[in-house]
Amino acid sequence: MAPRIQLEKAAWRWVETVKPEEIRQEHIELAYRINLPACKRGTCRRNCKGNPNCLVGIGEQAWLGEIDENAFHNIDDPNSERRDKNTFVGLTNLGATCYVNTFLQVWFHNLELRRSLYQCHNSRAQEHNIESDYEPQSICEHLQYLFALLQNSNRKYIDPSGLVKALGLDTGQQQDAQEFSKLFLTLLEDTLSKQKNSNLQNVIQQQFCGQFSYVTMCNQCGRSSALPSRFYELELNIQGHKNLTECVTEFLKEEKLDGENRYFCESCQSKQCATRRIRLHSLPTTLNLQLMRFVFDRQTGHKKKLNTFISFPEQLDMGPFLEGKQDQKCVYELSAVLIHRGISAYSGHYIAHVKDARTGDWYKFNDEEIEKMEGKKLQLGIEEDIAETVKSQTRKPKCSKGYHCSRNAYMLVYKVQEEESSDPSRTSVEVPAFLQRLVDQDNYKFEEWCCEMADMRKQSVDKGKAKHEEVKELYELLPARDGEPYEFIPLEWLKKWLDDSTATKEIDTSLFLCSHGKLHPDKVGECKRVSLQAAQLLYERYSGGPRLEGSSLCRECVSERCRVLRLKNQLNEDYKEVSNLIKRTLSDEGYWVGKASLRRWRQLALEQLDEDEHETKHSNGQTNGDGPHNNSKEFETDLSEGTEDDMKTFNEDIVCSHGGLSILDSERKLVSSEVWAKLREYFPKAPEFNQNQESCQQCLTLEQEEKDNEAVSKMMALEQKNQLLNLFHEKNRPTLTKWPQGTDVLYIVPLFFVEEWRKFIRRPTKSSPVSNVGNTLLLCPHGGFMFTYDSLISGDAQHIALLWPNEWDVISRLFMVDQAISIHCFKETTPSGSTTQYTTQPELCWECRESFLFQQQRDLREYTQATVYIRKVIEDKRMIKDAAPELNASSSEAEEEREEPPKVDGEKDPDFSQSQDSAKRLKLSDGSTASSAAPVTNTTKLGGIRRSTRHRKLRGEKALIVSANQTLKELKIQIMHAFSVAPFDQNLSIDGKSLTDDSAALGTLGIIPESIICLKADEPIADYAAMDDVYQVRMPEEGFKGTGLLGH
Asked: What is the DSSP string of 841-873?
């Protein structure tokens, strides 16, 4: 079938020869595409939306033919959640709790620990009513219940969230697994020690606790002292070692104590050189060996993982390392290996390989997934492939028989080797009756859930089979045959009816109706023509409406569309004709047309036609001057001015706000009646003005009033300028730094008043005249002045302007003044010499002044998105001349900097540091003072030279955006990216004070907006991009702070 656009054009091709009043039924059926041939299955890759008779590709493929009943539901087989025979139960990962799951599985397979936990007294479980859910409280109760479920649950995996919640662990944050093991065993030991059963109080010590002592020997006198200690695991350094024996040997080796680290000998009564070593006395039944893979990196200040291969045996003889107690069993068998997948200490995944004590089989525990190893052998396999992305990867060494090699193992669990026994009780642990009752309750709920899921699957299958039969029956009836009654059904409804994943709603055709209540011609592509018999069955089963039968074809809409399309086809010809007619000399009565309307009349006509045919799409018609038929340069030039993007109605651009003809002659053009008649065909409602129409009288009156007002403003501005000429030109201005002779009083007005007044004088017709002086802006609520003489000299003068007394008299006469403000100079002669004092009227309000200063300081320390400048210096504190060019300065900023006046020779500007080559300087004689005063926005310096308050960045200096609550460490990261200097090589200072506290906020360090921070680098680093992984901004590690593991 032809594409949709071609079908649409073919449906309306007849309008070229048929006028609206000549339309017959055959034309209406052509417009609605009634007689298009239906598509056959296999000929269309997808449904033909332009053909209402195409019923292929609407979703019927899934229903025609045989269907597997599993396609009728999306419910997994509940038996897939059931525990397989002779397998263990997994644990759900709650987000980042895989490290918890691995230890729980290891401890569960410690039969002695499990047996002891089952013996713990638990009155809550023993008295529990099975009609409600069991909720353990203590750690022992949680572990009891969890182990019982792991042993006898029917589920494939269970949820440990009860225990995790009781411990207060963050399920979204991965923690240190080794630290968790230590803290949890300590907590469990403390809990069990409170049991009444004395056999349970020392279970943790019996299983995991060994003894060693720190032995120190004086090299001088040979005296030996021992400090006994207990251990629950041995923490073995793996750096620089290849096998477990080397790690244990280093753990026990002698350490020399000399220099500042000498030992105080009790016999010698002085510090002496000595040797210290660890002496192993006894080993536990379960020996936990922690391989210290996660170490602290001094360079970065964070943990990192050592991906070193370590070889370890299946059978470990600890006899050579043990001193004394020769009767102790020293041969151990490997029972568990805990693995960390990943190359980073802050991410990755934990799994456990555990040996079944009953059968000797090895299992891999990966959260919910449990895999049995073949041949009763430990197979690490893919666990060693995870870290292959490490750049400095080493080849895996070959392992001898009975040995294993891993670079991801972080904990090895060895069990003391037992003699083979025929007693089955040693390897079997029975779940107590009170716990088994709780497990049976959970198993019953699981079986109930399985039954519910099976019933839901069956209901879905039955429903699907019924729908299958319905579709096969109705789809055959859908095609409408020629000459037989038919109806239109929405295509989207048919698709949803054939989509089993959505509920079938009633048939809604209201969105497809035209304004006459019939099927809109534009909507026929979104409907399908079906037989009356099929439509009847669909409406009976699903209801809906209104029904669109053969009588629903709208003659009115087809007639209107015919008119619009004929006008569209005629538009190009009319456009050419209008363009030619406009160039002719006017011979008869003319009409006023807006030039903007003439430029856009073709596009406006297309938009008007589109609106008439109720289409939502917009025409892309070209504007006048862009079309291929316009050859008139004169016409194009004549209409080139003005903007008409917002124009909605033709000729509205010459209608004034009063509804009359606009007074702007330059925006309209006189056209002939012939041109106007053509335009009226497309815009019958356009405003009409013939050439005798007078312009709007109201607009003319307003225009004259505006001219009169401008004349008055010019006269006012000229009069004020003549009376205040020096103030306007900034000549002969008084200054506070050098009080002028001949007067003891100066007057103060807001700088804002002077700036607004100058604007008015310069452009009296464009600016509003200034009527009053708002001096209350400079006063506090109590009527007191807000500035002191000293503060005005030091910078506050940028808010005010100083006036001579005669200027104040003029201003008082010309403007309304709410409050006079003056500053007075008094000279007193005393025996010690003459002194000068300054007072203001009104007097200073000290209370408000102090409050103002406090708020000012507060604002400087509570800022966001402020700019500070980083200036890189070398040894002699000078700027680096050949620094990198500015990357964040725009070309316009550079222009501004070049235009600024140079600095005064010798000016001590804290924001400026010259290099040896020195910048160009401007020298002024002592007598030449610039005519500058306080009334300008730039602060006044000695000698009257003013400089821009905008910071002038030097070459090599960079601006950074910071906030007051940002830490110094975060600022160093920004500096690292800007200057290629690592944070640990940065020495920062401000005003000579070093900045060293990385955790301190910038506001507390005295860094305020526009501050200049000096950067001195220890050494340059070329490749700073590689440092992103080395120095990252991290939240401080809090570990298990605030959790139940620390007693909170």
From this structure: ESPB-HHHHHHHHHHHHHHHHS-SSEEEEEEEE
